C-alpha cells in the first residue's frame, strides 16, 4: 500500500520536490497538495514579464491543472483551501473550509511573505506587494487608468516593478532608504551605472530617504510624504522592501522555528515526519531567497522521501546572477574588499560595462560584472575554488578567453 504525502504550499519549492519525487520514486506515495492561490504552480520569477505584457499567466505555469490530473496528484487550491491547522498526533492536515487529509509524511513549503512596513496610513486601497498573480493583476488594472506609481525599495523586485509600470505608461518614482540601488548585490559604481540607465528610461529616484506617511482620498492612496520633507503624488504604492519566511502555521503547530522553520541537512524539521523546503526554512542559521539553493533543497528532500537517507543539503556559494530590465549583472563574494585587498577595475561608459575584481594576495575573493556577464561562471569558480591567479593576474580582467588562447 502507498504511503500518504501531503504538501502544504503549491509553489516552486514544494512542487519541485514533488516533481523530483515522481521521477525518483513514482509509486511510493499518494500525493495531496494544498495551495492558497486559485492556480496551479507557476514561475514566480516570471511575474515581471506578465507585468510588462510580454507574457500571459498561462505562459508562466509550470504545472497546469491537467498536470495534476495526469500525475494523479490531488490538488486543493484557493483561499478556502489554505491550511489552518495540522494535528500532529493523528497526522492530519486541516484546511480553512474543513477539508482534511491524513499523512505519513508532511512537507511544509509555505514560502515567504512580502515585508509590508507599518507606515501610518497604509491600510488603504492601492498599497500592495509584488509577490503573486493577484498583485500583478491589480497593478495591470490600475495602470490602465491611474498615473503615478511609487515603489518603495531599490532591490531587484522593486526595480522590475518600476520598469514594468513605466512600460505600461505610468510615471514611476523609486524610493530607497540606502543611498544606492541593489545595495546588497552592487557597489556604488555599479549601482550608479544602473541608476543612470534606468533614469534615462524615465524612472525617477529618491535615495537615502523613506516614506513616513501615506495620504489618501476616499480610502484610496493619493500621495506619500517622504522623510526628507518632500511629497509625491501616488495612485499606487508597491512595497518591495524584502521578504520574511511564512512560518505562522509551523509555529502554531509547535515546530522549532527561529527566523525560519529549522531544518537539518536532510530538510527534516523538529518533527521527524515533517519536512520543509524553500523560503520558509532556516538551515544552519541561513535563510534562502534564490531559486538555485531552493531547488537543491527540493532535490535532497525528494531523495530523503524516496528512501535515500545519505542525501544531504549543503549551502551553495552565494553568487547573484540578475537581469534587471534587460541589463545583466553578476556579483559574488566580498565585492567591497577591505584594507588587505587590491581592486582591479574596468569602466567603459560607452558600452555600459563595469568590471571589478577584488583580490586578497593571489586569490580572487569578490567580483562584480555589470553589462557583460559572459565570464561569470569562470569567475565564480575562481572565487569558490580559491584558485591562485599569480600567473594570469595581468589578463584576469579580460575573462577566460585570452587565458584559453595563451594556454
UniProtKB/TrEMBL annotation:
The keyword Ribonucleoprotein does not apply. Belongs to the FAD-dependent oxidoreductase family. Pfam families: Pyr_redox_2, Rubredoxin_C. Residues 4-300 form the FAD/NAD(P)-binding domain. One of its GO terms (molecular function) is oxidoreductase activity. Keywords: FAD, Flavoprotein. Its cofactor is FAD. InterPro entries: FAD-bd_OxRdtase (IPR050260), FAD/NAD-bd_sf (IPR036188), FAD/NAD-binding_dom (IPR023753), FAD/NAD-linked_Rdtase_dimer_sf (IPR016156), Rubredoxin_C (IPR041575). This is Nitrite reductase. Residues 319-387 form the NADH-rubredoxin oxidoreductase C-terminal domain.
